[in-house]
Design brief:
2 copies of one chain form a homodimer. Chain A is of the alpha/beta class and 280 residues long. In chain A, 29% of the residues lie in helices and 11% in strands. The first copy, chain A, contains 8 helices and 6 strands. In chain A, strands 1, 2, 3, 4, 5 and 6 form a 6-stranded parallel β-sheet that branches. The C terminus of chain A is likely disordered. Chains A and B meet through α5 and α7 of A and α5 and α7 of B.
């Protein structure tokens, strides 16, 4: 694999930092190439501004158009272009972060806001038909993506009926609306609940699980999100009534929905959210 | 009302900027007080670092603990303390942003990451029982909150069965996991789809709708999210099997789930997502 690992945690001596180091060591042992963007260490600027696009201050910042024009002209700021080059190089993208307020830390959200510009990541058109390619196709097609996230809450509370919402659904805007939207094949995430309370033995188990997931990554079956061109959606991009007619919620946008009841009373365990995962 | 309006768009001459100006003018006419945090205009720094907490560089950045210690000691950075003061003052909080990658722009996500620290917004304990107050109670209890968001996609595609996911669910981590989590009562959002293609007449209709929503805000029935202490959740914070037994997805965490089929073929209209809204 050619792995591009995007890491967003302010403290290298954290659980996130330890897992990142363990993961990178495993990739090396397994003979893979990797490149790392450690956003905090790089001092990554997450705020989209007109400067990104070399736009004169007097011009209106017309989001998508400004980014497309700048991308085509090679006028994007150098830090953005450098990240895009790593994405071009990679066949596998790993996005690692602690879950803050049920989403990505700002520094990582702003990596997507700034790097995933029109004509690069999305808005790419089919050369023959002129149709815009989205959801299962797009600028980043041909790549695999995997999320690694550490979560303060215990597993059941972020499971299918947990109070915080099911992790699969909390990650929907990232896994479906961003990674899959731009064409990537997204494998189930590596999620570590109860991350504030992990003992040494638990850590070893989690690190071992991560190593195994990395070893399996090239052949792991991706989440079966429905492609835009699957025939499952009508012209308004609404899921046809006969597709997942009884499924409520975001998981209807995957072919196979198998919400699993959370196990209760069991010790905290690394959770691989199962609802979007293909059947074994 | 004492309205604290948090605004996150890089371009004042945008639809978002125009709606903000129209909203503020309406508040003035209606005799309300308001304060504005225009995050781009303020140059808001969205990146959590140890500097936020006055922590020595040699100390580990232990997220929640570091923020709590700094909050209690009055050692938070001045920009954070200033935002907290506005939240203390307000009885109503408005969060306005364009939907980027199905979430908040980084500058706004990092406003929550940095301002909503432990012991201020969450982790507050009941004086009598010592229990931590979350979901319907917390540091910001007694306030109303409303999201205003502009969305490039057309209404049906972000409706209940739309390909991008239902907006109510895309906003769950913000409306439920952040605003309601810290104790606020969240009214249904003002959502403007097809925001890139709004004509002058459409704009007037949307601005009029916003003015009405602001006028109604003090008496609008909040989204009926389930309180943590409602008895609906078990000790693992999992929704009891007899609550919303047939509801799939995140909307099970509201008392009344009424997914409405999207109207198709109708012209783009301001969408008030209805699934979480109380019945009329």
């Amino acid at each position: 694999m050619k792995v591009f690992w995007v890491f967003a945690h302010p403290e290298p001596r954290s659980l996130s930092g330890a897992l990142r180091d363990a993961g990178v060591a495993a990739l090396r042992e397994q003979g893979h190439e990797y490149r790392m963007s450690d956003l905090y260490a790089m001092g990554w600027d997450p705020v989209v501004t007109g400067d990104d696009f070399g736009a004169p201050a007097a011009d209106r910042l017309l989001g998508a158009s400004a980014s497309k024009t700048a991308y085509r002209a090679g006028a994007l700021r150098a830090d953005i272009a450098a990240e895009q080059e790593k994405l071009r190089w990679a066949d596998t993208v790993i996005i690692q972060f602690p879950l803050w307020w049920y989403g990505m830390p700002a520094i990582l959200k702003g990596w997507f806001d700034r790097v995933f510009v029109k004509d690069f990541a999305y808005g790419v058109r089919d050369a023959d038909t002129g149709r815009t390619l989205v959801y299962g196709n797009g600028g980043l097609v041909g790549r695999r993506a995997m999320v690694i996230t550490t979560i303060g809450a215990p597993g059941p509370s972020i499971g299918p009926r947990g109070i915080h919402g099911h992790l699969d659904e909390l990650l929907f805007g990232l896994q479906h609306g961003t990674l899959f939207y731009t064409g990537m094949a997204v494998v189930p995430p590596v999620a570590v609940p109860s991350a504030d309370r992990l003992g040494a033995a638990e850590y070893e188990r989690v690190a071992g699980y991560l190593r195994q997931r990395l070893a399996d990554l090239p052949t792991t079956e991706p989440i079966a999100f429905r492609h835009r061109d699957s025939g499952d959606y009508d012209d308004d991009l609404v899921l046809r009534p006969d597709r997942s007619p009884d499924a409520g919620g975001l998981l209807m946008h995957a072919h196979r929905c198998m919400p699993m009841p959370p196990r209760r009373g069991s010790p905290p365990a690394p959770v691989v959210p199962t609802a979007l995962a293909p059947p074994k």
